[in-house]
Write a structure and sequence with these properties.
Layout: E1 8-10, H1 19-32, E2 39-41, H2 57-66, E3 70-75, H3 83-90, E4 100-106, H4 114-126, E5 130-138, H5 155-178
The structure holds flavin mononucleotide (FMN).
């Protein structure tokens, strides 16, 4: 059977973003789970909301269409998710339909970006996507990664496994139903 394709979307373009380390950690975990993946960085697709199209949009759309589900890694900014992530997501629509969204939050506080995760679930719903219950919350992010961006708390491997098991279940079931 063909491997499921589950890209990891890094949802902030901020200089110095800690979410990049979290996204790269999730990318490694998705690979370890035997899934096909790649990192999609919203920073590579920044554009003005007034622009009809931007360079690379068609290729990106084809990639999102081929995906069987998505891992979204989003920090929490003022109790929401970054505007550039919304602009990125809103560029597409039917590409996401009937596919699972697994959402991970990142914050320097103890909540791990839970408010951004919960808000993104509502957005996923409008895309006819299926937001899963499980999430990985990267808490206390200022102290969670070393200077090389490696995670210091190995407990996150277990959180990621629980999350990816659920995401894979939905990706498999929904792919069969779509086919
Ligand atoms: C504009 C802005 C707003 C923020 N608001 C929150 C917030 O509401 N709650 C929170 O826990 N952290 C907040 N933070 C801190 C982030 O949790 C912190 O930057 C963390 O490292 C995740 O974001 P990053 O990937 O940009 O580093 C905010 C950071 C910025 C830049």
């Amino acid at each position: 059977m063909e491997k499921l394709f589950i890209p990891v979307i890094l949802g902030t373009a901020r200089e110095g973003r800690r979410s990049e380390a979290a996204a790269k950690f999730m990318l490694a975990q998705v690979k370890q789970a035997g899934l096909e993946t790649e990192l999609i960085d919203v920073r590579d697709f920044l554009h003005k909301a007034t622009e009809e199209t931007f360079p690379g949009q068609e290729k990106l759309g084809a990639k999102l269409k081929r995906a069987d589900g998505y891992v979204i890694v989003s920090p929490e900014y003022n109790h929401g998710y970054p505007g550039e992530l919304k602009l990125f997501l809103d560029t597409f629509y039917q590409e996401y339909a009937r596919k699972p969204f697994g959402i991970c939050g990142v914050s320097i506080g103890p909540n791990g970006g839970v408010r951004a995760v919960e808000q993104l679930r509502l957005v996923a719903n409008e895309f006819h996507a299926v937001p899963i219950r499980e999430a990985v919350y990267f808490r206390n992010a200022a102290d969670l990664f070393d200077s090389q961006g490696q995670i210091k708390d190995q407990g996150y491997e277990k959180f990621a496994k629980t999350f990816l098991d659920e995401l894979t279940w939905f990706a498999t079931a929904l792919k069969a139903a779509r086919d």
